[in-house]
Design a protein that fits this description.
heterodimer; A: mainly alpha; two-stranded antiparallel sheet; two-stranded antiparallel ribbon; 73% helix; B: mainly alpha; 15 helices
Chain lengths: 295, 349
Amino acid sequence: MAFFLNLVVTGVVVGSVYALVAMGFVLIFKASRVVNFAQGEFLMVGAYVCLSFLVWLAFPYPAAVLGTLVFAVLLALLVERVILRPMIGEPILSVVMVTLGLASVLRAAVQSVYGTDIRAFPEFFTGEPFRLGGVAVTPAYAGSFVAVLVLMGLLSLFFKYSKAGVAMRATAFDQQVALSMGISVKRMFALAWAIAAMVSVVGGIFLGNMRGGVDGSLAFIGLKVIPVVILGGLDSLAGAFVGGLLVGVLENLAGGYLDPYVGGGAKEVAPFVLLILILMVRPYGLFGTEEIERV
Amino acid sequence: MTTARCGDFRVSYESDSRIFASPVGRVACALFLLLAALAPLAASSYQIDLMSRIGIAVIGAVGLNILTGFAGQISLGHAGFLAVGAYTGARLTALGLPVVVTIPGAGLAAAAVGMVFGIPSLRLKGLYLAMATLAAHFIIEFVVIRWRSVTGGTDGIVVDTATLFGFEFDSAAKVFYLILVIAVVAVLFARNLFRTRVGRAFVAIRDRDISAEVMGIPLFRYKLLAFGVSSFYAGVAGAHLAHQAGIITPENFPITVAIDYLAMIIIGGLGSVLGSVLGAAFMTLVPDLLRIVATALSGSFPALIGLIVSLREAVFGLLIIFFLVFEPDGMAARWRTIKAYWKLWPFSY
């Protein structure tokens, strides 16, 4: 039982980071119908940039995080303007490929600056692990989980009450109507990318904290986010949250219980088996909008 | 000397669907093949290796273009299908079977797997299909790593020499001839496919699937067929890869290989057989050219050698972005433009 609880708790915590990154993914998709396969690379870049602020420039933690956020926004705006804007109206394959190309450029950039070795990540949440209902929880895990919840709360408030948030929702709902109401759709696309990049780099910083180190494998989180968003529904922020937690728990349980039988690797493949099953049964996910085609 | 006239003068359906639009094209093709066939006599082993890799890439890229460029179904799972073909080919060769059995066998195995993962394509389109095939890749990769008794797990397996009725393909040049012959067959088959009912059905599905169904094309059957044909090509390419490399491990087939192939057909030109050939050759040559340039410059910039891997990835990504933004129809379209320019030269107005 303790083993099961342990798996669930770690799953929920890691899943909360998935949820955060998935929200960025969904935001971009909702706003501009672009699937960003470079989301994981944004996360990785965020972790490394934060690391450089902390180690090379010896910034205090809050300043480093702030600096990373500013960097993420600038990078996202550049990417949106230079690469994604010309892709408006192009077929889906082109959009998918352009983000894959971007992913490869970002990976190469990180690799050429930092190399391929694992680098230790300074811890923000220090202290002894504490026990919660029979499960040992490290401060990094607990702190990240709480921070993710707070962030998500802030984001949902932003979308509900702020003028920009309402404008973004309007754009996602109907671009033509949004335009005629005086909303700059272009600016909303840019805003979506900026927010998505910010939540991804925050996810990267948390993951760096949880793992205690960063390396190129961080980018694979971007691929894991795909089962999450499909499970939750591609255009649902609530779905991203629920999907993230579910996938986090599922992969941990699969890893814990199936690995002894198959000899490892079940954790990596389980989310993708789930992905195929969902696509066959309910392609629009738990909370997504069902697309109905009429002739 | 034959010249092409400055305009489209096709007056019959027959001339419209001809494989070679002019005798010049036919002669050029024949000359190119003759050159390729004679090349191993003069080439170094490195050059033969490079040409073999181009040939394999051509087979795989033409196959992917049938699925993605002509039938409009995105696949991120082609590295997986390639792996299925490579392992099947290697296992069949180990049984002592000749290439006339092993290569079609590898293709059929890959086609079967490809069709299973193509089933979701009935309900899914575009984006969702990309994700389903991505999942297919990871599931195949998992099976390849874990099914130790057949695939040798992460250690991989050594591939025996290919044989054909007692003749052994035991040198790089002989394997190259094998690849060359199959690549020519593959390209010709693809070129012919789009003059048939099936090929035209693929194009109709790509352009508008609902209209295609209304016109009497059974969507499910043709989509599955597209997946089957395309993964058959991938399997054949995989089998050659196995023979050419001599040893195969799961590391030969990461997800980046699938992306590489997509990049080939995008840079070459979606929905163009010539484009797949150009793209495959280009994308295979680029990393090697980069390495040569980097080595040449390493005298003045010693740091460059350490950066080759990331340099390759960066150039690869930039190429994809550059082509998608500036030439979405790829090198094939560029080639058509160049030809059209010379047709009217020097009076281009």
